[in-house]
Amino acid sequence: MPAMWQIVSKPDLLVYLHTSFPVSTMRRKLNWREKDYEEQCRRLSHAHEHAHIIIDTDDLTPAQILEIVLNFLKNAA
């Protein structure tokens, strides 16, 4: 269901965190094939299209991601 993010939580603001296939499988110790990753991206495409901010997290630490989101929120207010 493409719009599940709207049904489950109805967010005021949508933050989309993106990561590449190699980084996502390394971080989560997933045994996905690239085809699985692509399917997950397809399922999240509606959220990606409607996100207020999209952050490529490959080269960022959690603290850096938080800083980006907080700065975005501060500027959006």
Query: Overall mean pLDDT score?
Result: 89
Give the CA-CA distance, first to last residue.
Answer: 31 Å
Count of beta strands: 2
- Rounded to an integer in angstroms, the radius of gyration calculated over CA atoms is 14 Å
Tell me the fraction of residues in β-strands, as a range: 5-15%
SS-based class:
mainly alpha
Question: Unreliable runs, pLDDT <50, ≥5 residues?
Answer: none
- Give the SSE order as H and E letters: HEHHHEH
The best one-word shape is flat
Spatial strand arrangement across the major sheet: 1-2
Helix content: 55-70%
Major sheet characteristics: 2 strands, parallel
**What number of structural domains do the residues give?**
1
Total helical elements: 5
Description of the molecule:
There is one protein chain. The protein has 77 residues and is mainly alpha-helical. It has one domain (12-76). It has 5 helices and 2 strands, in the order H-E-H-H-H-E-H. The protein has helices at residues 4-8, 21-28, 34-43, 45-50, 62-76, and strands at residues 15-18, 53-56. The chain has a two-stranded parallel sheet. The termini are far apart. The model has no long low-confidence stretch (mean pLDDT 89).
